[in-house]
Design brief:
- With 53 residues, the protein is α+β, with helices and mostly antiparallel strands.
- It has a domain at 3-35.
- The chain contains one helix and two strands, in the order βαβ.
- It has one helix at 16-27, and strands at residues 3-7, 31-35.
- It has a two-stranded parallel sheet with strand order 1-2.
Length: 53
């Protein structure tokens, strides 16, 4: 099981607190980090789109 960490900061590269938090979490296992200020990365799907929505 993973813990999802969502964060959003307009200037996260300049934030010392967020930088320290992300570096610490990046070294740990079981965390998935999503920055809500970055574009969404979509995985390529091998499934055909459904005709029924």
């Amino acid at each position: 099981m993973k813990t999802l960490v969502l964060f959003s900061h307009s200037y996260f590269k300049d934030s010392k607190v967020n930088k320290a938090l992300l570096e610490a979490l990046g070294k740990e296992q079981g965390f998935e980090i999503h920055n809500l200020t970055l574009p969404i990365r979509r995985a390529k799907s091998t499934q055909k789109p459904s005709m029924h929505a």
